[in-house]
């Protein structure tokens, strides 16, 4: 039987080799069903409100925010392990007749974690707004259009990541460097980024369509990319890495 010293050395070595782990959804029938249905619901709501999005983007995006927030919070609470809970899973199993210690049964408060993640997403909307401006969004015009678009991006793509990873700088560096193992949350983030970028392509084209105005195609691309990315990556490419190389950890 390995000694405590050997177990500690093995744990440290594992942390160095794999500093960021992929996050699996909860292993329950409800979590699986909700995880599959959620992208369909989000895209379906977008389709139902598409004409309203074209005619009045600001009002439509504003009124949709509470609905999207409720869907995302429900998804997080029922499908995702809260920040720190994936470490609790490795707790020692009790023997028959043995009482569990408080440290083995206690875990993170999911509701508090969801509120914390919502707060971080709200704060991050300002940074996303700035990135939209840097990548060509109208600076002086359509300010509320861009702001609500940024808020939707934060709720879709960043909220689940904040819920499972918090403000772990190492994890976000790995995500930004594309060497973090892929999972449903990182796949959604990647899909939303790619979808928003591709959604900008039709805007400057000389087609004279109402749906080409800012930020309709960005929102559509963001939602489609998020839905496809979260399920495709979370199912087919779970645990894979986009980059084959990663920075070596300092010893």
> Total number of β-strand segments?
0
Count of alpha/pi helices: 11
Radius of gyration: 20 Å
- Mean pLDDT score: 83
- Beta-strand content bin: under 5%
Outline: globular
Main sheet summary: none
Unreliable residue stretches? 7-18, 87-94, 100-106
Helix content: 55-70%
Structural class designation? mainly alpha
Query: Order of helices and strands, N to C?
Result: HHHHHHHHHHH
Distance between the termini: 27 Å
| Count of the separate structural domains | 1
Description of the molecule:
Keywords: Endoplasmic reticulum, GPI-anchor biosynthesis, Membrane, Transmembrane, Transmembrane helix. InterPro entries: GPI_biosynthesis_protein_Pig-F. Pfam families: PIG-F. It comes from Clonostachys byssicola. This is Glycosylphosphatidylinositol anchor biosynthesis protein 11. This protein is mainly alpha-helical. It has one domain. Helices cover 65% and strands 0% of the residues. Helix 4 runs parallel beside helix 8 and helix 8 packs antiparallel against helix 10. The longest helix has 25 residues. It is globular, with a radius of gyration of 20 Å. The chain starts with a helix and ends in a 15-residue tail after the last helix. About 11% of the residues have low confidence.
Describe the structure in brief:
Keywords: Endoplasmic reticulum, GPI-anchor biosynthesis, Membrane, Transmembrane, Transmembrane helix. The chain is built from 11 helices and no strands.
């Amino acid at each position: 039987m390995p000694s405590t010293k050997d177990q500690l050395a093995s744990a440290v070595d594992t942390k160095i080799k794999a500093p960021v782990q992929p996050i699996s959804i909860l292993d329950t029938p409800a979590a699986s069903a909700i995880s599959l249905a959620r992208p369909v619901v989000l895209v379906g709501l977008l389709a139902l409100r598409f004409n309203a999005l074209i005619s009045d983007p600001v009002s439509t995006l504003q009124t949709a925010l509470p609905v999207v927030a409720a869907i995302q919070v429900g998804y997080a609470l029922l499908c995702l392990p809260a920040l720190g809970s994936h470490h609790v899973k490795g707790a020692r199993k009790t023997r028959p007749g043995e009482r569990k210690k408080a440290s083995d049964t206690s875990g993170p408060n999911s509701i508090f974690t969801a509120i914390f993640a919502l707060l971080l997403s709200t704060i991050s909307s300002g940074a996303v707004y700035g990135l939209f401006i840097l990548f060509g969004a109208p600076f002086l015009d359509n300010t509320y259009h861009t702001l609500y678009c940024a808020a939707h991006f934060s709720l879709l793509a960043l909220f689940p990541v904040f819920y499972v990873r918090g403000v772990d700088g190492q994890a976000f560096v790995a995500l930004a460097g594309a060497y973090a193992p892929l999972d449903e949350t990182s796949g959604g983030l990647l899909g939303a980024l790619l979808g928003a970028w591709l959604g900008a392509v039709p805007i400057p084209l000389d087609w004279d369509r109402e749906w080409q105005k800012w930020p309709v195609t960005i929102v559509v691309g963001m939602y489609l990319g998020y839905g496809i990315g979260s399920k495709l990556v979370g199912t087919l490419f779970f645990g894979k890495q986009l980059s084959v190389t990663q920075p070596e950890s300092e010893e």
